[in-house]
Amino acid sequence: MPTPASKTAVVLAGGVAKGAFEAGALDVLIEHGVRMSQVVGASSGSLNAALLAAGIRAGRERDATRRLVELWRDDASWMRVFHFSWKDIVSRTGLSDSREILALVRREFPAMATAAVQPVRLRIVVAALRGVHATLSARDATTFEGVLSFADRELDADGDRDRIYQAAAASTAFPLIFHPVDVAPLGPCCDGGAVNNTPIQLAAAEGLEEVILISPYPAVFRTTPALEGVELVSRLVDILIHERVYRDLKAAEAANATIARLQALVAAGTLSEEQLAAVLTTQSLRPLRITTIRPPVELEGNSFTGFLHKKLREDYIAAGRAAALAALAG
User: Fold this and answer.
1) Who contacts 274 (Cβ-Cβ below 8 Å, separation ≥6)?
2) Could you tell me which residues are beta bridge partners of residue 35?
3) How confident is the model at residue 206 (pLDDT cuts 50, 70, 90)?
4) Are residues 21 and 72 in contact, defined by beta-carbon separation less than 8 angstroms?
């Protein structure tokens, strides 16, 4: 775990209603003095990321995490998150628009970002339905991962803030539950968790070597749900989330092991510091220390159950607190 004096990046994964876990974890980290200079969010984690970034910018991190706990506990009910209409239902693009989510972010973000005190970078991942131009081996390609990046003054200006609100709403737009949300310049976008629910490499892109990953899903799944209906959908969400983070953590583990072996060669005199630097540059290798904060066992309920039960959201928040305290102690 980074020391309280260090600056680090935090990655907030999606988890639908289980995003309450992250609020509890963040509250403990900020209470213990962990400083964050970059915040990356996907899916429901983007809402936590936006409000946390606003708090960091204003030097009000503690207020931000306390408010997140309140919002998840008291306002994340089904009726305060979803907005149904017959027009939505027959549109065949979703059951609800994002009116309630947008209203929440538009209300809470400026109320928190009351000053421009500290630098911060906010990144929000969305699934861009029209695709994003990319290249592979110098040839044109398409990726569906859209990344909206905001830094410092962009969190202060009304026009840029509106893009933050749209990006956060789009990233939480779970497919077929919410309509896609238009985000400039990407067009219609939906749940960022569909393309990258644990964007660890985005967090590390600025050269920071300390990353905290907070996810409401454990390292080991032990229960097998009934694979039908809502439970089947929830397990598919689990798979999308878990498999990407597993691969990213394995890749970071392999890179760190390679660097350690090369450093051992330097210590033995077999490799010079200059040669080490050349190898690391050529192979795009650099150390990345990742602290994961996850529950030791699966949280109760599926991805949506928490919207129906306040007690369950309170349990998620408490689980987040306990997991963060365990990480700090470790």
Assistant:
1) none
2) 7
3) low
4) no
